[in-house]
């Protein structure tokens, strides 16, 4: 199997716009129909990147092959690649668009961390996806403290991990509550229903939920609903009002406010990315 190495700031795509600032490369990578024939005829589509990087899927998607996994990647998904991790993308939906953030060795040595510190759970929870959207917004704003803000956001992923879904040391009811909320995210679950699902008193959930999820029960539900909205917003056949109602918000105004508080972007701005 042949393997292509991609150096710093290099990404596959038909149109890749890359810029570098303070040990980090940012790239908007687009994939259009011109790549279809190239992909069908390519025998060198397995590749790896010299530096670790995050990739947030804004539009389209693909089926990704890694050494031990096959992932269906859709809009709103966040992926992380360790240095030298081989992968390839097949069944690409055209057009597709990704926002990539690649961190150099200088970045990791400066803060005395490594890409091995990034747990797989980090990229699966809503918080990590919202963090990446805030990084994207910071790159657009390009204010005086943009680099400081971005480094802080990325380090929060490295150090804090993602407690959403419950700690491995948490009581079993924590996992049952998380499963119930994730399975029925579009329903107006009551605290009493959750207590029955988990087998604990409602007060136990209310008081101890923030310890394991780093947010209140209501905040967790709102994050899940915003996460579900990420893919819906990218579909032009869904109005923002329709997205708001499908995701369980009372109206578009409430949805817009929560989306902005969570991601740093207005829904209409995210649609235009």
Report mean pLDDT, rounded to a whole number: 87
Number of contiguous helices: 11
What is the makeup of the main sheet? Answer: 6 strands, antiparallel
The shape, in one word, is: globular
Oligomer: single chain
Assign the CATH architecture of the largest domain. Sandwich
CATH topology of the largest domain: Jelly Rolls
Number of domains: 2
Helix content: 40-55%
Please identify the top-level CATH class of the largest domain.
Mainly Beta
* First-to-last CA distance: 36 Å
Strand content is 15-25%
What structural class results from the helix and strand content? alpha+beta
Question: What low-confidence regions span 5 or more consecutive residues with pLDDT below 50?
Answer: none
Give the strand tally.
Answer: 8
- What value does the Rg take, in angstroms? 20 Å
What is the CATH superfamily classification of the largest domain?
A: Jelly Rolls
Notes on the protein architecture:
This protein is of the alpha+beta class and 273 residues long. It has 2 domains: 4-160, Jelly Rolls; 172-272, Arc Repressor Mutant, subunit A (Orthogonal Bundle), CATH 1.10.10. The protein is 43% helix and 22% strand. The chain is built from 11 helices and 8 strands. The strands form 2 sheets. Strands 2, 3, 5, 6, 7 and 8 form a 6-stranded antiparallel beta sheet that branches. The radius of gyration is 20 Å and the shape is globular. The two termini are 36 Å apart. The model has no long low-confidence stretch (mean pLDDT 87).
């Amino acid at each position: 199997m042949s393997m292509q190495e991609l150096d710093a700031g290099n990404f596959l795509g038909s149109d890749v716009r890359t810029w570098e600032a303070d040990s980090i490369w940012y790239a908007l990578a687009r994939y259009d129909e011109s790549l279809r024939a190239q992909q069908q005829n390519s025998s060198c589509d397995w590749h790896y990147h010299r530096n670790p990087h995050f990739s947030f899927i804004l539009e389209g998607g693909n089926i990704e092959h890694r050494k031990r996994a096959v992932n269906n990647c859709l809009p709103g998904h966040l992926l992380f690649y360790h240095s030298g991790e081989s992968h390839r993308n097949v069944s690409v939906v055209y057009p597709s668009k990704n926002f990539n953030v690649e961190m150099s060795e200088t970045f990791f040595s400066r803060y005395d961390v490594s890409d091995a510190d990034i747990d797989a759970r980090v990229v699966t929870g809503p918080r990590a996806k919202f963090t990446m959207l805030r990084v994207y917004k910071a790159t657009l704003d390009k204010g005086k403290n943009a680099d400081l803000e971005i480094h802080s956001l990325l380090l929060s992923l490295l150090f804090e991990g993602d407690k959403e879904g419950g700690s491995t040391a948490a009581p079993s009811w924590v996992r049952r509550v998380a499963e119930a909320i994730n399975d029925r995210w579009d329903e107006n679950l009551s605290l009493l229903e959750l207590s029955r699902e988990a087998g604990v008193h409602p007060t136990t959930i209310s008081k101890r939920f923030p310890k394991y999820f780093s947010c209140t029960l209501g905040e967790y539900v709102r994050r899940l609903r915003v996460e579900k909205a990420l893919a819906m917003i990218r579909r032009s056949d869904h109005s923002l009002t329709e997205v708001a109602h499908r995701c369980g918000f009372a109206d578009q105004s409430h949805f817009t406010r929560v989306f902005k508080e969570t991601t740093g972007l207005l829904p209409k701005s995210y649609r235009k990315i």
